[in-house]
Amino acid sequence: AIMRSLWKNKVPLEVGRMCYSSSVPTTKLFIDGKFVESKTSEWLDIHNPATNEVIARVPKATQEEMLAAVDSCSRAYESWSETSILSRQQIFLRYQQLIKDNIKELAKSITLEQGKTLADAEGDVFRGLQVVEHTCSITSLMLGETLPSITRDMDTYTYRLPIGVCAGIAPFNFPAMIPLWMFPMGMVCGNTYLLKPSERVPGCTMLLAKMLQDAGAPDGTLNIIHGQHAAVNFICDHPAIRAISFVGSNQAGEYIYERGSKNGKRVQSNMGAKNHGVVMPDANKENTLNQLVGAAFGAAGQRCMALSTAILVGEARSWLPELVERAKALRVNAGDQPGADLGPLITPEAKKRVTSLIQSGVDEGASLLLDGRKVNVKGYENGNFVGPTILGNVTTNMKCYTEEIFGPVLVVLEADSLDDAINIVNKNPYGNGTAIFTTNGATARKYTHEVDVGQVREPVTPPLISEKWRHSVL
Ligand code: NAD
After folding, report:
1. What SUPFAM superfamilies does this protein's entry cite (predicted)?
2. 3-state helix, strand, coil in the chain (%, to 5)
3. ipTM of the complex as predicted
């Protein structure tokens, strides 16, 4: 019902030079507490990745609209930053309940625009919900510190205070989780928030905005603009915006980091990845193969924490044929079809990029152990599907190793020892996440201490997550 009310105004759709009389819904801007139709003349089509049908359109907001959004944030900040922590907490307590009650509706909108399976889409919402639940602990998170008698007759204390208008720029791969990393935490601390969702998947964010309003967030505390480069430049340049959170590719992230910080803003850029899973021969084989397959191919590999590179150490090399068999068994289908393990890639361009990186591996001498390029998904022949693909005998100079593929492709390297494996991982310029598969505590400890990567996972015991969420780990 929320979706219908947001999208009720229909506009004519133009495809190429043809103008169809049918209509597609338009995505609204959210400015000063109102869902408004953009006055722009520039619109982008949003496609269902399983069919490539146009399902909605999103505006490139005009300069005037973006200014109205940031002005609304600035005005709202004056009173919002003065509200009590307890009243902000109450809003987020209601918000987390609304998200929980609507998880299926949110997941459906994600699958429609992003393509991932419904189970993955629910996981996407669930991970974001956990952040919203965390905001409800704001009464202790905002505590400051005191140090009495720092010198004679003098005490020191610190407060945690909001900084003003903050902005978020989000990617396409987690339409719920990543926006929910951004505005709830910023807002509960007393900041107001300007959000630019990915232009490819804005629908879920609009539902989340409506729920936030229903939870009682005052007008102007969250504003949403849409667009691409002009919207990003606007956020990097506008003097009222004090801090930017970015999640997405290296290309965009480095640009935003530089442009935003040149303008005196705090910028955090969370960017691309090439995550290695080191497989030791003493690992639990069953668990390891299941987890590798889930982490490499789940969500069609479009996760920043996908384990897209395996390093088989010593005897673990002999597990490769079984890994291939398990990957073969995964079912590729539209995300809303029962039994689908992985859905399509986001766009035809993404499919082209992924298939050409697979080909580059073949051309550079890797062995194509499983080729998902010709996958046939009955009834969805126009979708952007690539099936699970495994490249063996990969070496560190190959393009399929040096570039982030962001598709259902696992590249497999081999190493003689743990030291050799660590050496490979540490030479790779990406450092988002990594995992080691072993049953030996000392090996796991050595790995976590010596590897130069931000997040390390050591599944020495079976994972403490239920089957339902297995494919939904970031
Ligand atoms: P993207 O960089 O193409 O887009 C992200 C955002 O930046 C979008 O809102 C987009 O409009 C904007 N943008 C795109 N190109 C731009 C440019 N040249 N200049 C300015 N703005 C630009 O990323 P994506 O394809 O949507 O997402 C996939 C990428 O995100 C992958 O590289 C993935 O690893 C990364 N990612 C990282 C994390 C993390 O936490 N590190 C999490 C999820 C995704």
Report:
1. ALDH-like
2. 40, 20, 35
3. 0.98
